């Protein structure tokens, strides 16, 4: 499913932006652990958008785990009072892709009896 690949790519983009910001010499060292955590969580989220396992597992649970990773980052940033306006538009894109991915997966699981569609099958 193409939407999963796009969401996976966006997860990696956001993760890389957090890594770049963390590695920027001008970044306040006190926020680098939070940036590192967010980079890790968005990179982990990318794994959950893999089309692998669409046939054998409830993919909606995996996709929801990606949301948990994103929310964990948002909580970390809010708790530490870290503001990263430069990344905010990419996070918003990620959230929109999550919503579309989640909807598509839930629909596919409903149509295919609890399991999402085989990515090799034609519709």
What would you note in describing this structure?
This is Pectinesterase inhibitor domain-containing protein. It comes from Linum trigynum. The chain has 123 residues and is mainly alpha-helical. 68% of the residues lie in helices and 0% in strands. The longest helix has 24 residues. The mean pLDDT is 85.
Task: Pick out its properties.
mainly alpha
Total strand segments: 0
Helix percentage range = 55-70%
The assigned structural class equals mainly alpha
Parts with pLDDT < 50 across at least 5 consecutive residues: none
Largest sheet: none
Order of helices and strands: HHHH
Mean pLDDT: 85
Categorize the overall geometry: elongated
Secondary structure tally, helices: 4
Query: Beta-strand percentage?
Result: under 5%
For the terminal residues, how far apart are their CA atoms?
Answer: 11 Å
Radius of gyration: 16 Å
Protein name: Pectinesterase inhibitor domain-containing protein
Brief sketch in words of this structure:
This protein has helices spanning 2-23, 32-48, 59-79, 88-111. The chain is an all-alpha fold and 123 residues long.
Itemize the secondary structure elements and their pairings.
Blueprint: H1 2-23, H2 32-48, H3 59-79, H4 88-111
């Amino acid at each position: 499913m193409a939407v999963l690949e796009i969401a996976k790519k966006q997860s990696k983009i956001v993760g890389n932006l957090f890594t770049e910001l963390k590695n920027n010499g001008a970044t306040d060292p006190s926020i680098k652990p939070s940036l590192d955590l967010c980079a890790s969580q968005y990179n982990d989220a990318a794994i959950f958008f893999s089309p692998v396992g669409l046939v054998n597992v409830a993919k909606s649970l995996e996709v929801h785990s990606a949301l948990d990773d994103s929310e964990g980052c948002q909580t970390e940033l809010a708790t530490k009072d870290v503001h990263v306006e430069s990344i905010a538009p990419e996070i918003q894109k990620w959230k929109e892709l999550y919503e579309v991915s989640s909807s598509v997966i839930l629909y596919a699981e409903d149509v295919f009896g609890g399991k999402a569609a085989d990515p090799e099958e034609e519709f």
